[in-house]
Design brief:
The complex is a heterodimer of chains A (about 375) and B (about 525). Chain A has about 375 residues and is α/β, with parallel strands linked by helices. Chain A has two domains: about 150 residues, D-Maltodextrin-Binding Protein, domain 2 (3-Layer(aba) Sandwich); about 150 residues, D-Maltodextrin-Binding Protein, domain 2. Chain A contains 16 helices and ten strands. In chain A, helix 8 packs across helix 16. The longest helix of chain A is centred in the N-terminal third of the chain and has 26 residues. The two termini of chain A are about 50 Å apart. Chain B is mostly helical. Chain B has two domains: about 200 residues, MetI-like (MetI-like fold, Orthogonal Bundle); about 230 residues, MetI-like fold (Orthogonal Bundle). Chain B is built from 24 helices and two strands. Chain B has a two-stranded parallel sheet. The chains are: A alpha/beta (about 375), B mainly alpha (about 525).
């Protein structure tokens, strides 16, 4: 292979650069030997550099993070963590395939911690038994019991409510107050949402299943589909935009998008979309508004578990929680951390008391129901 | 090289419960229909644009022909997800086009008038056709340039008009080359997720990710992927069977230096327009929009880590290009030397990786690599008492390996076309004169197919620059490429900040394209 490569380089060189044809053979030898020794050196150096003994050594001053969350949103937290503790945080971000990578890497995985934006991913990793339970008084004090795993396998760090954005002009206050009302024929051709297969909508439907059972949930999904103004598409902001444009009157969306649009200085048109709509916190079965969590957990084969727990605790404390509230416009899990003013201005709401891990169990079923009712067609 | 694809097939063999019964009774028919619709649409679109423009610039003379020769390749550098975004912005309700129409006719709400919905199957076909036609343009043009002029002259002298000559002689003679380009375009259509997801088209690719993440079944996802592979295999086999008795070597009789046929009057401008439209829609307009954003609205965040990301992109794409072409030469030449079935099947099989969505193929890469690492580690632990950890997984080696498996189809296709056009008589003659196979390859084949090899290098390089899903999963810690940066900004909906990266991907893609245009023969010989 190396010979072929070198030859190819020679051919290319001959065409583009000054190149003495007579020296071809010498050059070939040189390149081959050079390439081979380079590869060899690199391999040996790599192996030597990464050779820990089997006995657990003292933890290096770092922690390795597999993140489902985009780096822009987490970087401020992590920078502050490093500043305070001197522990360096290495990150790799991907939304697809993290779980498979963890599984494949097995006991040698470099990942100490995973960070996700929804309970679905978190519980999938937990179900695959890739996580270790953590016992920490700090975490137990900061995070209410229904936002963390009973055995301490995963921890919720922020709460995200899936609500309705309604048109200020065309929907009267109090006209819609529950998820159930979305199937009312009066909303025929007036509802917008993103793909029924998006994690947020799947989680929402899973919550409906948990509350009302499979048959009722399917009826509900079919009813919502019946009322859609257009084929599900775009992201949550696109739904607010559709309301501003008059395509529909009610949209299903996560709250923080409203704040991101309202405060968007780079694209002022988004402020207009936000201005055309109002947030409604709908109720589900008398138990409150559907919420999801973003969360984190320590991996089973973590090489820096103590550092990982430190990071986890840091994320549950006031400083990080305040950032979740002010930068990401989410609801902090820690009691007593004030909401962002804009978020607070939409009013108080009652987050669903459903156990979040129970909801996650119904996600595969929710996905099937979306198929059965042809939600996206 | 065949291992990642094989891994997916093996994954597909584990149980996925009753997912298929569920899919069959619900959404599978729609998945299959939109996949077929998308493929047929893109096939028609790319063949018409690609073959048509290739024919015009290789045989006719008209204004700006010399520029079109290379410029028609430019849309190749434009990622599908980027162009999809640009056109949605332009053509949706709030965009400038509909805005101007409303202004003009006094409409106010979308309920007042009809406008084609860009987020649709038709939209996806248009977007993919615009960025994928260069594959066919490239291979068809090489074929047209190498076609025996005498044969075409004979056709004309026997009274055929230019259209008939083109359709009954030139195109059938170029068929293997066109098919190579078309196969690549089709495989890329199948593996595309970004565009169809953005346009809310439910293809089988969308189905893969749904089953994988919402139903938590990687086995089910691998099964759909395998089904798609079968789809591709059937198409390829059917095409080969269709021309099983034909051989397409060029005869030695070439007439030196034949002038291009000048076009008269209005035809000159029609030809100009036919070449200008795909270029303008597929490259100039989207590039202009990106440039405008990059210089107008991007914030300083956009340049954070830009240069290290660019360096990573260049390194990875360069490594992938060199290895993918070297391996393709090895495989292609091996198949020529020892035409046995095993090698042919192995080569064909490994190149199927291109038809699999990148994220799925990445699982096919990480699984065997990590297994290898863990085996070495297990060995070292039990015999040497030390842990070697993961040597390859999560390193640049893993990413390069992923790229090479993914893009082998590109290099193998180009190399095979190049080799196929060299008659075996030449090999025979050289071997009789006492040259070893390696020496024949080096002294005769590689020089003769220099154009094809460079095409292979450039295709892999440009596609490597755009690669996103595999990079995300396989990369080391704290490692960004231009494509991952673009994605990161786009995810956060800071499209303006995504523009510089997207523009850089395009710009870096242009350089090799221009290089290429200097190397492939610009005239018929």
């Amino acid at each position: 292979m190396v010979i072929m490569t070198s030859q190819l380089i020679i051919i290319l060189n001959k065409k583009f650069w000054f190149f003495d044809m007579k020296k071809q053979r010498a050059r070939l030898m040189f390149l081959t030997v050079g390439a081979a020794s380079l590869v060899g050196t690199a391999l040996i150096a790599g192996i030597l550099a990464s050779l820990p003994t089997v006995a657990p050594a003292a933890e290096k001053n770092e922690v390795n993070l597999y993140s489902y969350r985009q780096p822009g949103l987490i970087k401020p937290f992590l920078d502050e963590f490093t500043k305070r503790t001197g522990i360096k945080v290495n990150v790799t971000v991907a939304e697809k395939g993290m779980l498979e990578r963890l599984k494949a890497e097995g006991r040698n995985t470099p990942a100490d911690m995973v960070l996700t934006t929804d309970i679905g991913r978190l519980s999938a990793i937990a179900d695959a038994e890739m996580l270790r339970p953590v016992k920490s008084e700090v975490l137990e004090r900061n995070i209410p019991a229904h936002y963390r795993d009973p055995k301490g396998v995963w921890f919720g760090l922020s709460v995200r409510a899936r609500v309705l954005f309604v048109s200020k002009d065309r929907v009267r206050p109090g006209e819609i107050t529950s998820y159930e009302q979305l199937t009312d024929p009066k909303w025929r051709g007036r509802i917008c949402t993103r793909s029924g297969k998006h994690v947020y909508n799947i989680s929402m439907l899973a919550a409906v299943i948990a509350e009302k059972g499979e048959a009722e949930a399917q009826k509900w999904a079919a009813g919502v589909r019946e009322n859609l103004a257009r084929k599900p598409q775009g992201n949550d902001r696109a739904q607010a935009k559709a309301i501003a444009e008059g395509v529909c009157d009610v949209a299903i969306a996560n709250t923080y998008y409203m704040a991101l649009m309202t405060t968007n200085k780079k694209s002022p048109e988004q402020q207009k979309w936000a201005a055309a709509t109002r947030v409604v916190f709908p109720d589900l079965n008398g138990h409150g508004t559907h919420v999801n969590i973003s969360g984190a957990a320590v991996t089973e084969h973590a090489k820096h578990p103590a550092n990982a727990v430190k990071l986890l605790e840091f994320l549950s404390e006031d400083f990080a929680q305040q950032m979740y509230a002010d930068q990401n416009f989410e609801y902090p899990v820690k009691a007593g951390v004030p909401l962002n003013d804009l978020v607070a201005s939409w009013g108080k709401f009652k987050p669903s008391t459903l156990e979040i891990s129970k909801v996650a169990k119904f996600r595969p079923l929710a996905s099937r129901i979306m198929d059965r009712v042809q939600f996206n067609k | 090289m065949a291992i990642p694809v094989a891994t997916i097939v093996i994954l597909a063999m584990s149980s996925s419960d009753d997912i298929w019964a569920h899919l069959l009774s619900t959404v599978l028919p729609e998945y299959v229909m939109s996949t077929i619709g998308l493929m047929v649409g893109v096939a028609i679109g790319t063949v018409i644009i690609g073959v048509g423009t290739a024919w015009l610039v290789s045989t006719r003379d008209f204004p700006a022909r010399r520029i079109f020769e290379w410029a028609l390749l430019l849309p190749l550098a434009m990622p599908g997800y980027v162009i999809a975004f640009v056109y949605t912005d332009t053509l949706e309700f709030a965009g400038p086009v509909q805005g101007a129409l409303r202004e003009l006719f006094g409409w106010s709400s979308p309920r007042d008038y009809w406008f084609p919905e860009i987020r649709s199957l038709g939209g996806a076909i248009a977007m993919l056709s615009l960025v994928l036609y260069p594959y066919i343009y490239l291979t068809a043009r090489t074929a047209f340039l190498e076609q025996s002029v005498t044969l075409l002259e004979a056709g004309r002298s026997l009274g055929r008009g230019p259209w008939r000559n083109f359709l009954t002689l030139a195109v059938p003679m170029a068929r293997p080359a066109i098919i190579v380009g078309l196969t690549l375009a089709m495989m890329e259509t199948l593996n595309d997720f970004g565009t169809v997801d953005f346009f809310a088209v439910s293809t089988m690719t969308a189905g893969i990710f749904d089953v994988w993440f919402n139903m938590n079944s990687i086995a089910g996802a691998a099964q759909i992927a395998t089904l798609m592979l079968l789809f591709v295999v059937v198409l390829i086999v059917a095409e080969r069977w269709g021309r099983r008795r034909q051989r397409f070597h060029q005869s030695g009789a070439r007439v030196g230096h034949r002038p291009l046929r000048p076009l008269s009057g209005s035809n000159r401008y029609l030809a100009f327009l036919a070449c200008f439209l795909p270029l303008a829609l597929g490259f100039i307009y989207p590039a202009a929009v990106l440039t405008n954003m990059a210089f107008g609205e991007a914030s300083s965040d956009a340049l954070d880590g830009f240069f290290s990301a660019a360096a990573n992109s260049l390194t990875l794409s360069g490594l992938a290009a060199v290895f993918a072409v070297a391996i393709a030469l090895f495989l292609g030449y091996g198949m020529r030397l020892y035409p046995n079935r095993v090698l042919a099947v192995a080569g064909r099989f490994s190149s199927l990786g291109y038809a699999v969505p990148g994220a799925v193929l990445a699982i096919g890469v990480i699984t065997p690599l990590a297994w290898l690492d863990n085996s070495v580690d297990g060995f070292a632990r039990s015999y040497l008492g030390i842990s070697t950890g993961l040597i390859l997984s999560g390193t640049i080696v893993a990413v390069t390996f992923g790229y090479v498996t993914r893009f082998l189809a590109l290099s193998l296709g180009a190399v095979e076309t190049g080799l196929g056009r060299i008659t075996p008589n030449i090999d025979g003659a050289a071997r009789t004169l006492g040259h070893s196979p390696l020496s024949v390859l080096r002294r005769i084949h590689i020089p003769m197919m220099r154009g094809s090899i460079l095409i292979a290098v450039i295709l892999v390089f440009v596609d490597g620059m755009k690669e996103l899903p595999m990079t995300l999963i396989l990369r080391p810690f704290n490692f960004e490429t231009l494509a991952t940066q673009v994605q990161q900004f786009a995810k956060a909906e800071q499209f303006a900040d995504a523009a510089p990266g997207a523009l850089a991907i395009v710009a870096v893609g242009i350089l090799p394209v221009i290089l290429l245009s200097r190397v492939i023969p610009t005239r018929r010989q």
